[in-house]
Structures are given as structure tokens and as C-alpha cells.
Q: What sequence folds into this?
């Protein structure tokens, strides 16, 4: 069996393969994408032995784990903090990290972390995505209900142009000294939309009606008694 240590960086994946005796079988690097990992798996199958690999837990380690396991490898993800406790090294490079992981795999001392099956991880991703969609739906509903409804209100009253009466041009006049001066024009009082037109009060009209009724009653009373009614400024004789 070959024991392969993998060290993942941003641009490459360093690997080191050891045999059961501890001898180096192959050392190199590969691109950390899907094509590079498949090429690495094809290259290592030339040894004709089963492969057991170890990689530290970091961003992208799960992708390497899944891709290499689909190619027939047995891959474990090691806890990075525990690996540093088992092998504290003063000089730390990518090749040395790969060699440390290969040695731990050969000695069966890899502090592996538990990784769920692909089916369980797929269910978790679906549940996480559904929770995200529910939160977005609630957020949109709250945003819609928080905004006040804008209603179009039709203006009642005179148009806006009639409210703003344009002042007349100022007139020129002469003062006592003969100098020209500007006279401020008399502006009409501003109108308001809710102001009703001025109406004559009803009380003087009622008083006039009562006065007419009293005068008619007096004339009828004098005519029935045969008295003479002479309005002011005229002489009229009425006989019974």
C-alpha cells in the first residue's frame, strides 16, 4: 500500500508517497483543480497498489477528498491542530508537511476528523439552501409591508395657478423732489383652497323682511280705520 501525504495551497497540491517500508515512491505537485486531481490519480495507479492519503483540514480539503475518493483512493482529513501537536517542526514547508502526513498515515496515527457521507452532506446543503430562501422571503415581505401605500389624491378647489396671483408691474411716480420712485402695487389677499366664497350675512335680510311686514300691517290697520297715511315727503289722503 502507498501512503500519500497531501498539502494543499492556493495554486498547487504537493504530494509525497511512501511505501510500507518508509521509502519514497514519488514526490511532486499537481494543480488543485478537478483535472489536476484526476491526472494525479491516473499517475499514481501506475504503481499498482492501493492508496491511502491524508490531508490537513482547510478550505478546499473536502473537494480534494471527494474527488480522489471517486477515483478509488482512501482519503482522511486530519485535524491541523493535532497534527502540529504530534509533529512540532522548526522548519515547515509544503514538502515537509506532505512528508509528515505520509508518515502519520503509514504509522496509522492520523488524527482524522469525522466527515459525513455525500448523501448526508447533500441533505444538509438542501436544508441550508431552503433556510436561506425562507429568510429571503420573510425579508421581502417585511420590506413590502413596512412601506406606506401611496394613494393618488385628487386636488379639490381652484387650480394652483389661481392661488398664486401674479402681481402687477410697479408704477412709477414722482416725489416732491422730482426723483422717480417705485410704488408698490396693492396685491389682493391670497386665496386658499379651503376658503369658501364670502356670503352676505342672513341677519340683515331677516330684519328687512320683518320691517316690511310691520309696515304692511300698519298700512292695513290705518286703511280699515279710515286714517290718513302720508309717507315722508308726500301728501296722500285716503278716505274710508
A:
Amino acid at each position: 500500500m502507498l501512503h500519500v501525504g497531501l498539502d494543499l495551497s492556493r495554486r498547487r497540491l504537493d504530494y509525497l508517497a511512501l511505501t510500507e517500508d518508509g521509502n519514497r515512491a514519488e514526490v511532486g505537485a499537481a494543480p488543485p483543480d478537478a483535472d489536476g486531481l484526476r491526472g494525479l490519480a491516473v499517475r499514481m495507479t501506475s504503481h499498482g497498489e492501493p492508496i491511502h492519503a491524508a490531508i490537513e483540514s482547510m478550505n478546499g480539503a473536502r473537494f480534494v477528498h471527494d474527488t480522489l475518493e471517486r477515483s478509488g483512493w482512501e482519503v482522511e482529513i486530519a485535524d491541523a491542530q493535532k497534527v502540529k501537536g504530534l509533529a512540532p517542526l522548526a522548519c515547515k514547508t509544503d514538502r515537509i508537511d506532505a512528508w509528515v502526513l505520509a508518515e502519520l498515515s503509514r504509522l496509522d496515527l492520523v488524527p482524522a476528523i469525522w466527515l459525513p457521507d455525500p448523501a448526508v452532506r447533500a441533505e444538509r446543503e438542501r436544508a441550508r439552501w431552503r433556510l436561506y430562501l425562507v429568510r429571503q422571503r420573510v425579508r421581502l415581505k417585511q420590506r413590502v409591508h413596512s412601506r406606506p401605500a401611496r394613494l393618488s389624491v385628487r386636488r379639490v378647489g381652484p387650480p394652483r395657478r389661481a392661488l398664486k396671483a401674479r402681481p402687477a408691474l410697479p408704477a412709477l411716480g414722482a416725489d416732491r423732489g422730482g426723483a422717480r420712485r417705485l410704488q408698490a402695487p396693492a396685491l389682493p389677499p391670497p386665496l386658499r383652497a379651503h376658503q369658501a366664497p364670502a356670503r352676505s350675512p342672513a341677519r340683515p335680510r331677516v330684519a328687512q323682511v320683518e320691517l316690511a311686514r310691520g309696515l304692511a300691517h300698519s298700512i292695513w290697520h290705518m286703511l280699515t280705520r279710515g286714517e290718513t297715511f302720508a309717507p315722508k315727503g308726500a301728501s296722500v289722503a285716503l278716505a274710508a
In short: The helical segments are 34-44, 61-70, 80-86, 94-106, 118-146, 160-163, 202-225.
